[in-house]
Write a structure and sequence with these properties.
The structure holds 2 protein chains of 2 kinds. Chain A is built from 13 helices and 16 strands. By secondary structure, chain A is of the alpha/beta class. Chain A has 2 domains: 183 residues, Thiamin diphosphate (ThDP)-binding fold, Pyr/PP domains (Rossmann fold, 3-Layer(aba) Sandwich), CATH 3.40.50.970; 116 residues, Rossmann fold, CATH 3.40.50. In chain A, the strands form 3 sheets. In chain A, strands 2, 3, 4, 5, 6, 7, 8 and 14 form an 8-stranded mixed beta sheet that branches. A 5-stranded mixed beta sheet of chain A has the order 11-13-12-15-16, sandwiched between helices. Chain A has a two-stranded antiparallel sheet with strand order 1-9. Chain B has a single domain, classed as Thiamin diphosphate (ThDP)-binding fold, Pyr/PP domains (Rossmann fold, 3-Layer(aba) Sandwich). The chains are: A alpha/beta, B alpha/beta. Chains A and B meet through strand 2, helix 3, helix 5 and strand 10 of A and strand 2, helix 3, helix 5 and helix 11 of B. The complex binds thiamine diphosphate. The site of thiamine diphosphate has 17 residues of chain B, from helix 4.
């Protein structure tokens, strides 16, 4: 394993596998799809060596069902997929959400819709990661931008899933998944690992979906001696279906508040040269790397530009955007789609200011030049 | 005065009864047979997991005092696969309807059977989509009526037993609600069997299937089951003409020697340790 003394060139997908193992993942259910397949292959190789289980299911619906089943039986469980598979998984992402089951779903973005651009990069599932399944729901999604960060955010995805008892999506893109970069395996004792809350109360008093002040309930595994019911129907604190108005409202709000109460804890971002910035770039994933380079180049031309790199995409950090927008005169949102995150940025800005997109949707990584081009346009729109 | 029968110990009757099922429905009888089989095998309730999909039949887990999981339409077997792999000592019972298990969930069914994973699949076969109000299913016979087959069904139906055997299940049986004693014995054998055990249970839906097909009362439907089923031993002596339109009941396949998936996986893990 690559460590501090022996760093190695590692592919993004493999770093994801290392991260999953470091977080304690012991179950992987999946269906092959480019550009995510290396994660499944890595897990098929590594899990049985550690007593864990890998299964290649018959499709993506089945994959996520098996993953949720394994999690209910107490395992930390994940899948990895891409566009078409992510679409098929949506019903079960909703099921994991309403049943409060921790799972990690890696979506390595490629161009879409449909089969789209199987081997080319994209960030066009950004909104889908937030709103993909039907019904009101509050999604959690993280997006790393380097191989080292893929490791780190895979661990964070498991931690958030276990803590919040909810599905967490790790958004990668084809560039990141297939890129090889220097990777250092951090010292094991430096890796924070969070496990789901287990009950201390005896079975007689136990309620799986009990309303608690922080909206987190105890979650024993099937077979632990706590016999309870899980359903995808709206349910009462015992887990049984309900059609009582007050109970419906409470259970929906519990699911929402659980995410919102703990939002700060799981909002990850990085500011780069924002302190004196008049112009702000917002980006995530590999687009943020081009954006960082754009900042450096623009600074050479004395343009006061900064970068806000988002690692947490959902729940969207509205407050953070609102705060940063206060001191700038214009914003560029750089993303490899036709403009998805920009809608959220516009909603989050309390005052009117020029907000332009730097977009690329031809399956190729966005360049610093293209972002600078948009910076100049936003600058120009302010001049007028 | 509490109920005396030991079966109540396995029911969430205080919390969940009465059930959602219509008068005359066969699902409750099947639930009773499953519980009695679990009782007679002496399983610890903490070790039993019941998983279902979506449909009238899939409401069963809410009523039984096991670890219970009511999932999405068609996918119960895939959920059960994950549970069984993660905790192999648990006993997995999956209940599905005919639409749930054979239409939307047909793919999961044949692949779980192919793996021969240790799951008992009780397919509650009422030849109709009950929950959604009487549309035709993959087991609705030709010419039978349903709300989406108002002129009679033109599609041929699946033979669940042949399908299960062809897919690789190591235990395959058919029974009917009418044959309550046989049903109990078969379910018990299916539970004991190590590997994929499939039990096709012919059930009745008098409210929808019966009403649309001139069998309005539950009694008529049960008598239909009596008249249209032939025991496998008796059937062996009959000609194909005599068996026309009949459903053979009994155990069609019981092979304890076929490699079971979770055990094979454990062997793989053990071999990597060496
Ligand atoms: C993905 C999806 N499609 C459709 C439905 C609607 N639906 C609910 S139950 C059902 C069919 C139930 O029939 P069957 O499986 O035969 O079970 P029964 O109700 O007869 O026991 C359908 C189509 C659904 N819940 N989910």
């Amino acid at each position: 394993m690559p460590n501090k003394e022996r760093p190695a060139l590692v592919q993004g997908n493999i770093a994801c596998g290392y991260g999953a193992l470091a977080a304690g993942c012991s179950f992987f259910g999946g269906y092959p799809i480019t550009p995510s397949t290396e994660i499944a292959e890595f897990m098929a190789r590594e899990l049985p060596k550690r007593g864990g289980k890998f299964i290649q299911m018959e499709d993506e619906m089945g994959s996520l069902a098996a993953v949720i089943g394994a999690s209910i039986a107490g395992a930390k469980a994940m899948t990895a997929t891409s566009g078409p598979g992510f679409s098929l998984m949506q019903e079960h992402i909703g099921f994991a959400y309403i049943t409060e089951t921790p799972i990690v779903v890696v979506n390595v973005m490629r161009g879409g819709p449909s089969t789209g651009l199987p081997t080319m990069t994209s960030q066009s599932d950004t909104l889908q990661a937030g709103f993909g399944t039907h019904g009101d729901y509050y999604a959690v999604a993280f997006a790393p931008s380097s191989v080292q960060e893929v490791f780190e955010y895979t661990v964070k995805a498991f931690n958030a899933a276990e803590f919040l008892q909810t599905p967490v999506v790790l958004l990668m893109d084809e560039t990141l998944a297939h890129m090889r970069e220097k990777f250092i395996y951090p010292p094991t004792d430096s890796i924070e690992v969070i496990n789901r809350k287990k009950p201390e109360t005896p079975f007689a008093w136990f309620k799986r979906f009990e309303m608690t002040p922080d909206c987190i309930s105890d979650f024993p595994a099937f077979g632990d001696g706590y016999r309870y019911h899980i359903t995808g129907l709206v349910h009462d604190p015992m887990g049984f279906p309900t059609a009582v108005s007050s109970e419906i409202v409470k259970s929906a709000e519990k699911l929402r508040d659980k995410i919102l109460i703990h939002k700060d804890r799981f909002t990850y971002y990085e500011k780069f040269m924002t302190d004196d910035a008049i112009w702000l770039i917002i980006a995530f994933g590999t687009a943020a790397r081009s954006a960082k380079q754009a900042v450096i180049e623009a600074r050479h031309h004395r343009m006061k530009v900064g970068l806000l790199q988002l690692y947490t995409i959902w729940p969207f950090p509205d407050e953070l955007i609102a705060e940063l927008s206060r001191n700038v005169e214009g914003i560029v949102v750089a993303e490899m789609n036709m403009g998805q995150l920009i809608r959220e940025v516009k909603k989050a800005c309390p005052r009117k200011l020029p907000i332009l997109g730097a977009n690329r949707y031809d399956g190729v990584l966005i360049t610093p030049d293209e972002i600078i081009h948009s910076l100049k346009a936003v600058h120009g729109s302010k001049e007028k | 005065m509490g109920p005396k029968s030991p079966i109540y110990d396995y029911l969430r009757y205080k919390k969940k009864f009465p059930t959602v099922w219509c008068p005359g429905c066969g699902i409750g009888t099947i639930m009773g047979a499953i519980i009695r089989a679990v009782m007679s095998l002496g399983y610890d309730k903490n070790d039993v997991v019941m998983v279902s999909g979506i449909g009238c039949s899939s409401r069963m887990p809410a009523y039984v005092d096991f670890n219970t999981l009511h999932t999405t339409h068609g996918r119960a077997i895939a959920f059960a696969t994950g549970i069984k792999l993660a905790k192999p000592h648990l006993k997995l019972i999956v209940v599905t309807g005919d639409g749930d298990g054979l239409a939307i969930g047909g793919n999961h069914f044949i692949h779980a059977a192919r793996r021969n994973i240790d799951i008992t699949h009780i397919l509650i076969n009422n030849s109709i989509y009950g929950m959604t109000g009487g549309q035709y299913s993959p087991t609705t016979p030709r010419r039978a009526f349903a709300y989406t087959a108002p002129y009679g069904n033109i599609e041929p139906d699946f033979d669940v037993v042949e399908l299960g055997i062809a897919a690789g299940a190591s235990f395959v049986a058919r029974t009917a609600v009418y044959h309550i004693i046989q049903m109990g014995k078969i379910i018990e054998k299916a539970l004991k069997h190590k590997g994929y055990s499939l039990v096709d249970v012919i059930s009745q839906c008098p409210v929808l299937y019966g009403r649309l097909n001139k069998m309005r009362s539950p009694v008529e439907m049960l008598l239909w089951q009596k008249e249209h089923t032939v025991d496998i031993k008796v059937a062996a002596k009959k000609s194909p003409e005599e068996l026309e339109g009949k459903y053979i009941v009994g155990i069609f396949k019981d092979d304890p020697d076929m490699p079971e998936y979770v055990s094979e996986y454990q062997k793989l893990i053990d071999s990597l340790k060496e």
